[in-house]
Amino acid sequence: MDKKQIAAVLKEMAVMMEIRGDNPFKVRAHQNAARIIEGLSVDLPALVKSGQLLEIKGIGKGMAEKISALLDQGELAEHQALKEAIPGGVLEMIKIPGLGPKKIKLLWQDMQITSIEDLEHACRAGKLAQMKGFGAKTEANILHNLQLLKQFRGRYLISEALEIAEALVQQLGEHPRVIRCRFAGSLRRGMETVKDIDLLASTPEGDRAAVMDYFAGLPGAAEVINKGEKKSTVRFANGLAAELRLVGDDQFAPALHHLTGAKEHNVAIRQRAIQRGMKVSEWGIYKGEERLPCPDEQTLFAHLGLSFIPPELRENRGQIEAAEAGQLPQLIELSDIRGMIHTHSVWSDGVNTIREMAEACRARGWKYLVVSDHSKAAAYANGLDEQRVGQQLEEIDQINRELAGFRVLKSIECDILGDGRLDFDDETLAGFELVIASIHSRFNMDEVQATERIITALKNPYVTILGHPTGRLLLSREGYPVNHEAVIDAAAELGVSIEINANPRRLDLDWRYVKYAADKNVAISICPDAHRISGLDDIRYGILMARKGWLTAKQVLNCYSAEELIRFAEKRRR
DNA sequence: GCCGTTTTCGGCCCGACTGTTTTCAGTCG
Q: What SS3 class is residue A425?
């Protein structure tokens, strides 16, 4: 097992122990160990071999033994025993907001509810409301969240899908009979969640069967859903399905364009072709009977009098008109990014030290790191009070004296309190070079209240960036309702930046509002919200959302130097 | 289950909210 898998087992054990009613501190020890293992920047087998695992704070003798067993044998007797004791459906209920381990235990042991389906039936029959500790409102709330869960079922985060899709493209590309291979569909357009993976490969006609056999037999393919000569679908262990289509190499580009969509984009492209006496389909582009050469997508667009439209823009948002006028933006790329904003460290709920995070940034070619740990109201996340802030700022000064050619900037992710005030007074805020203001509590406001709360916070001149504007968690939690236009208009007027939180579970600001914000001259910050070194690489998902929002590097705050960033923050404070 | 020690046992993060209660348990971040 690798680090990720071991961490997943430990997390699952923690949930199962909670449901069973074990010592909550034992539960937390497992959660902590999972976080530590996940965040390790060194090789785990080497650590175990040298006995250094025990030197890590939070890993004791018992945990080290469990980790070794998982590493060597890939399983753990205690984990198996827990799995036998608790039905899978019971475990799944933890995903429903409002249902925690205690209530789940009651449902399971007093009502014999062992699946999501059982639970829905019981809710509809009004049986939950009659139970001790439950009531009509709880029942309605569970039913509502069940509907959301069902709606999300069968959808996957872009990060989950990309990881699999990229591996598949590489493996298929290694097959000697595959000429070209790409993934297409909503994944290629950079949608924040996807239903499945669409793969396209070109092969000589006689070699299709061999390639399909290879595809169906790839490691990780848990189930072959269907298998034909031109099209096969395979399901992976996490439930995600990948469909592979095979075409001749001369059809690769039109097929790639067709499969990338979106539907509205394809309709508009076909209409445009017809207006020009041509015909576009997944098989090619034709003028009358003549099949026009189309070696790549660039050529396809050129035949239609258009410049290349990047996949992320192929929705239904004016991209064709812009391409015709030669006014498509030069979209931001990862290489435009100069520094990381919004990161956490061991000072609050992060896994790595400031120095480790800084060195990881430097190794990735970035020039600065903005450390923004939680403020004191976020007690659950070990938020900093004024005294610890002072100590942290001293540590940053020390690191800055030692790191050549790199800069750590002083920041805080300051909680926006219920009434829109900030968690620190102005004097404390003035000690930071920039301030990110975010909501982490009281999510149940209505739209008017929540919007007012945010705008009140933005009026504080020390606020540089608004963090995750809706607090949504993709596929699990709706954010608090926000009047996006009103918040963006206020940010524009006040000179506050809005973040695109690049954590693949958030991707908040939603890309659908990014263009509106940029058009109002709101500077956008693309922020990994990294709680560990590996979280820094989430920046790529933020870049995808920025591209979907038509952003250029000039519109993104962390494409500027540290000095320019500080100047941006200072402008408001004067 | 981990940690630290006045060292083998006691403490471990906490404030707010919700819905259920009639003083509090469960959940969340």
A: coil
SS3 string, A154-223, reads CCEEHHHHHHHHHHHHHHHHCCCCCCEEEECHHHHCCCCEECCEEEEEECCHHHHHHHHHHHHCCCCEEE
Cα–Cα distance between A383 and A354 in angstroms, integer?
Answer: 15
Q: What is the pTM of this model?
A: 0.84
Chain A residues 88 to 107 whose Cβ lies within 7 Å of strand B are 97-104
Q: How far is the CA of A301 from the C1' of B10 (A)?
A: 72
C1' (B8) to CA (A65) span, angstroms: 21
| Model pLDDT for residues A67-112, shown as the tens digit of each residue | 999 999 988 999 999 999 999 889 989 888 888 899 999 999 888 8
Question: Pairing relation of β-strands A497-501 and A465-466?
Answer: parallel
Q: Rounded to whole angstroms, how far apart are CA atoms A229 and A209?
A: 6
Instruction: Using a 7 Å CB cutoff, list residues 199-228 of A near strand B.
Output: none
pLDDT of A5 reads 87
Residues of chain A (64-83) having a beta carbon less than 7 angstroms from strand B: 64, 78
Q: What torsion do the CA atoms of A187, A190, A192, A195 make, to the nearest 10 degrees?
A: -20
Each residue's pLDDT tens digit, A30-52: 988 988 888 777 888 888 888 88
Say yes or no to pLDDT of A213 above 80: yes
Asked whether strand B has any atom less than 7 Å from the CB of A289, the reply is no
Question: Taking the CA of residue A142 as centre, how many other CA atoms within 13 Å lie in the half-sphere pointing to its CB?
Answer: 26
Chain-centre distance for alpha carbon A98: 23
Residue A339: closest CA among A358, A312, A314, A316: A358
φ, ψ at A105 (rounded to 5°): -60, -40
Quick: pLDDT tens for A254-310: 999 999 989 889 989 999 999 999 999 998 999 988 999 999 999 999 999 999 999
- The continuous run of DSSP H or E covering A372 comes out as strand A368-374
- Rounded CA–C1' distance between A98 and B18, in angstroms: 10
Distance of CA A198 to the CA centre of its chain: 20
Residue numbers in A 123-152, CB below 7 Å of strand B: 129, 132-139, 141
pLDDT digits (tens, 9 = 90+) for A367-391: 999 999 999 888 888 899 998 999 9
Residue nearest to nucleotide B12 (CA to C1'): A25
Question: What domains sit in chain A, N to C, each tagged with a CATH number?
Answer: 3-152 (1.10.150.110), 156-247 (3.30.460.10), 253-324 (3.30.210.10), 334-573 (3.20.20.140)
